[in-house]
Amino acid sequence: MIVTVELPDTIARQMHLDGPEAQRRALVTLAVEGYRAGELSRGQVSELLNLSVWETEALLKERGCGLGMTVEEFEKDSERLRAYLAQ
Prior knowledge:
Layout: H1 9-14, H2 22-36, H3 42-49, H4 53-62, H5 71-86
Helix pairs in contact: 2-3, 3-4
């Protein structure tokens, strides 16, 4: 799908969307906001941006979208996953 958006030149410059990386920057912004809104999963962000799992994690963390889990929550989820996979 092709999506076209028109922005005033001043706003495009302010958002650094006027150079050779404009399309990529816009796509990254769209993917991060989709993730933040709960509309995209981490896997979908990876797929959309053609990034590895680790690159996606770094990008989302850089943009303030870290896992948002405590160590205890992560460990509990890991235990549940191990128990489930052992069945």
